[in-house]
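Progress report, Aim 2. The chain analyzed during this reporting quarter is listed below.
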Amino acid sequence: MNFKKSWILTEDGSHTFKIEDLKETYHSLHGALRESEFVYLEKGLHFWQKANPQAKCRLLEMGYGTGLLAYLTFLRNTESPVDYTSLEAYPLTVNDYKKLNYNELLVENTDLSYVAFSALSWEIAHPLTPTFTLIKHHTFFEQFTATHSFDLIYYDAFGAHAQPALWEKEWMEKCFSLLSSGGVWVSYCAKGSVRRALQEVGFSVERLEGPPGKREMLRAVKP
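Predicted structure tokens for the chain:
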């Protein structure tokens, strides 16, 4: 997918990329940082951690993209250990990462900058701290085979108008099979057909208030 990308400024001051051919952006125009923190950290990781205090979270991200979500999880997680696995079929380049302003916005107590984090090699587990390990796989979700179950899935594919196949029931069923009992699936998506597909494969599904600029989002739990 060698589409031309342009960077744009979102409403919270953070950058994202826009792919004109797909009429799609990597993040919400209402705020790349705000969306990532609200949908995935607050409603996903912190929700799971509250129910499983001190337990290690085996986390799977579907769609590494700009790496913002992985980096935010690395920076902001203080509750318990996280083993972070991310999948990306079309990785960006280091030059792409350098065009974004996350290095300037995310200046926190770490020696590992956003660009350095994003430049970490693929297919190798990186124990970055005693409580955070990252591994990135250059693969399609459809072809991914796991060696263990997960506790949380960040489902962050492009929208259904751009990647409709990834929102079909077949892949919701794969998510269900990848999660352990009590595992959580979370996404910015609130599409009715996705909610019904999640329910049909066995999830308990909630429609939650969405991040700024979006009325609703979905969270699903495997019984």
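The chain has one domain: 30-221. The mean pLDDT is 93. These observations will guide the mutagenesis work planned for the next reporting period.
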